[in-house]
Amino acid sequence: MIRDQETLQLLLDSIGSFVKEELIPREEEVAESDEIPEDIASQMRELGLFGLTIPEEFGGLGVTMEEEVNIAFELGRTSPAFRSFIGTNNGIGSIGILLDGTDEQKAHYLPRLASGEILSAFCLTEPDSGSDAASLRTTAVKEGNGYFINGTKRYITNAPHAGIFTVMARTNSDVKGAKGISAFIVEANTPGITIGKRDKKMGQKGAHTADVIFDNVWVPVSALIGEQEDVGFKTAMKVLDKGRLHIAAIAVGAAERVLDDSLRFAMERQQFGKPIADFQLIQAMLADSKAEIYAARCMVLDAARKRDEGKNVSTEASCAKMFATEMCSRVADRGVQIHGGAGYISEYAVERFYRDVRLFRLYEGTTQIQQVIIARNMIREAQQ
Ligand code: COS
């Protein structure tokens, strides 16, 4: 749902210009330094980019899902590290509080997330619990008016910068699987928390992930999201339903960028006495990429509109995430192919994007997990 087309267009234009004029020229610097420059971070704060999805009453812009995916199409056109920096506050690091938090929790944390004063991170994955998220072992044992949290969380995006963590932990160790899990908001400066060293990743330099280790970390009862035990797994799944749609939209934006770069290269590069864009085998790659991007864009927009209508889009979000991220990798692969030897050289952005977009098919649920979710939902519906 787009609330006001004109206002949205102004926002998209300003984000589009920011991407083109400020972020794209700094991509190389971020890839080399593995840092988001502070001046870029403050411009992001000024533009309100940390609070796009947080409701206006908490200081954000409160965009709808359809508006959000349109913004993500723009943000996807530059290095994913920039998006990742603002991504957790708009997504997996805030949605749990927004959907299931108490009024006090929302009022306390959301304004600071919206302004970018603090960053947030989502702690679900563990060393022995990835795709099988319900097998997580981190515990939160109740004692008096609080809980003691113990465990290790892995590959946590923005962990080195986060002010708060949404932590999924087992409050009921008698119950195996999803039912005994609860979600907590844990402040990063709580005694007993250690952040591991930054992971050395294949790509997405500038986006930082690390372990978060909880060693007898005490939190008050008020840190329990919604002050309700045993529903934390559902909170996490709802967070991921929305997050997956966002990642799908980012993948569409990244694919569009790669295709634009590849088309420009093909029109400039001369071989056999003419631009390689004149050759039909190159045209086939350009056309396949164009059609697939169009299909993914339509899927993302349709799923976003359905979510805005209040429908359950678990299936659609997984379809969109699976199709768009796989599509993005194919487009990046063709992009390298169109560039020929130049596509393997870091002077061209396509080499970096090829590595950067690989992560889209893994995080917030691998392609195989999306397939499981889609098929299970189909079977469940057919049984009803
Ligand atoms: N929204 C709300 N509730 C949901 C839900 C959703 N999208 N998906 C599942 N649930 C509920 C189920 O209804 C069930 O509750 P009931 O028992 O009351 O019916 C409960 O959660 C457990 O669901 P399920 O039985 O499907 O859990 P499984 O252990 O079989 O796991 C998958 C389901 C595989 C889908 C889940 O573990 C998953 O998404 N794994 C990938 C995790 C991931 O994306 N990690 C990325 C890291 S975070 S960046």
Radius of gyration: 21 Å
Order of helices and strands: HHHHHHHEEEEEEEHEEHHHH
Percent range for β-strand residues:
5-15%
Terminal residue distance? 30 Å
The average pLDDT is: 97
Bound molecules: coenzyme a persulfide
Structural class, from helix and strand content? Answer: alpha+beta
Largest sheet: 4 strands, antiparallel
As residue ranges, the low-confidence spans are: none
Helical fraction: 40-55%
Can you give keywords for this protein?
single chain; 4-stranded antiparallel β-sheet; 3-stranded mixed β-sheet; 9 strands; binds coenzyme a persulfide
Describe the SSE topology.
Blueprint: H1 5-23, H2 27-33, H3 38-46, H4 65-75, H5 80-90, H6 95-100, H7 103-115, E1 119-123, E2 139-143, E3 146-157, E4 162-170, E5 181-187, E6 193-195, E7 209-220, H8 232-268, E8 270-271, E9 274-275, H9 280-308, H10 314-339, H11 349-356, H12 367-383
The structure holds coenzyme a persulfide.
